[in-house]
Protein 1
Amino acid sequence: KTPSGRPRSVPACARLIREPTLPTTVLIKGLARRDTNASLQAELARVGLAGTYDFLFVPVEQASPAAVRYRSVGMGFVNFDSHEVAKWAVENFVVVRSRRTVGATWAD
């Protein structure tokens, strides 16, 4: 309280600070170079995770300096709506493609 007895107002920046929360962002490892945001979305939908995330991103790089095509760098990020769903993905999301295994781990 202030010296006059009134409650102190909370600065706007302090209202933005939240209590620590459990992680919800997952790193998907082992994607093929041809994978895209759409193919990762389809894979998540196939295992029943459609509509459980609010952000999905598969980083890409230019295939070569002269190319206009882009390719995945082999990983993707998904931010799930809850820690419980993210935890399920980390523990259970495994896709085997020919000789490649796609899996999930916590993003740091």
Note: The beta strands are 25-29, 53-57, 60-62, 70-72, 75-80, 94-97, 100-106.
Protein 2
Amino acid sequence: VCYSTALHVFEEYLEVRQLRKNRETEVPTELVGTVEPQKFLDSQLYQKDKRLFGFVRDTISFIFDKLQLFIITPAAWAFAIRVCGPEHEYKATLLWLFVLQWV
């Protein structure tokens, strides 16, 4: 859990750095003459929007993954045990797997 959280934070940090570059409006000196300024601005706007959407998508996905790990999976196991009984571990495991496929 700590590793995945650290990885998520590091990836978001890299995305923020790249977002700063996407907010630049001047064509870099390396691209002057090869890219039209309007095309460069359009590309920058598209990349900025794409990154902002990625922030939201990745954060929601990260939160849902942690909710599933700590809340949904144990709740599904408790439901399977309640339905099948603690003495029927094989049936409970199959029901648990079946329930997790629907979440």
Note: The mean pLDDT is 93.
